[in-house]
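User: Show me a protein chain along with its predicted structure.
Assistant: Here is one chain, sequence first, then structure tokens.
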Amino acid sequence: MKIARKSPELLILIMTIGAGISWAVWLNLLNNFAIEKIDFNGAEMGILQSLREVPGFLAFTVIFVLAFVREQKLAYISIALMGFGVMVTGLVEINMTFYLATIVMSIGFHYFETISSSLTLQWIDKDKTAEFLGRVIATRSAASIAGFALVWIMFEQFNIDYFWLYIVGGSFAVIGALFCWQHFPFFPQKVTQTKKIVLRKRYWLYYALQFMGGARRQIFVVFAAFLMVEKFEFSVGEISLLLLANAAINVVLAPKIGRLIHKFGERNSLIFEYIGLVFIFIGYAVVESSTFAVFLYIADHLFFSIAIALKTYFQKIADPADFASSAGVSFSINHIAAVFIPVVFGLIWLYSPSLVFLAGAGMAILSLLLALNMPAKPAAGNEVLLGKFS
């Protein structure tokens, strides 16, 4: 698909770049900064990650803000707030200020993710959505490469302090927001969006898969990278190179994944993803080799790219007027487990890290059972095989 200048597609990609670089810097530095500067243990990391996910749980509130601010403008504000949160992280010295800076960053990040999802479903035609979402992932990965490379060069080659790394990293989101605000027109909505919270019975499978996806994602985001630092003693530079390799693979493969989803359908794609994740989580539970751990980390991230299929499934079954409201609601459902899993599993981690990953395998199995209930050709009125609601 071709992307024209000053088009909605290009706007989404540029916003993704600004947010992606800032997020990559924050993610790259998180575990090393927490352990080296704030002296975090697994339980404290769990608390921070739970607090980080609270704004995601409250993403449904975006629908109330949209009553006063148009969706495209709120996307710019959200990116800028995210960048500000990353920048002030370099100033923190104790647990409480680290938690507060993370919450500020997270509010901007989760509002932007919610709005970006809504705008994509509104602006992109159904037959192009999977491929475009693959491009979004590839663009985010390319932005991550820039962020990880930036950290590696500044930290490893020039020994730049954490403070300046966070300042530079956060500035990309702020500058990106200002650039988009000045250089893109406001695009009209194809369908007027519902300005209230929408929960529909016929979307229940989508909600269930979103919940399970959020639960599994926390095991990966919180504990997979922490395993690398705590068990295998990866340095900031090594984490940068790992994330860099991960992102480079996604730049090449994510657009292809989008096209394959369009070819094989959402049901088959999600079944394949969940089977793969079962084996990956079991691998995390028993891994003793740092090389094998790196393989699992890259494969894990690649399988999560197939979650594009869940968005295209929803686009096919949903009323177009529900996209904005449902983006917030689904993001909140996705983050219900995220509020408590990092804390609870952080405590479990102190007893047995393997048990944390075996629980992730169990979540993937349950997701697989849910995906088997998805029809081969989903549409409004044909949302599920069993348990249909009007």
